[in-house]
Amino acid sequence: MEKIELIRALIKAGRGDDLLAFVEGESPYLTDASQGVPESPWLRRIWVLVVTHLRFVTRYGEVTKPQIADGQVLSPYPAEFQLWLAAGAPGIALEDLQAYVREHPLA
Known about the structure:
This protein is mainly alpha-helical. The protein has five helices and two strands; from the N terminus they run αααββαα. It has one domain. The longest helix has 20 residues. The protein starts with a helix and ends with a helix. The model has no long low-confidence stretch (mean pLDDT 95).
């Protein structure tokens, strides 16, 4: 399975929290192969919105409308998430995702 296809499968399987751990640098499956936050200013901006989007998805699922929680309006960023995927999901290595899926198979 290719990286983008694998990321989409993780989201579809409700594993946004595990993907978030990769993006936030907290996954135990991360190795030096994953470079983390991209150096390009444009991709760094997208990366921040991907983190925000994944936090939203983890909390609310794939809801596309903003949600109100504790007096704050929280928004998803699906377009930016798609831009990140279109750019090849930089910052996360395929082999790290595959290591995770080997131990936590997608059903």
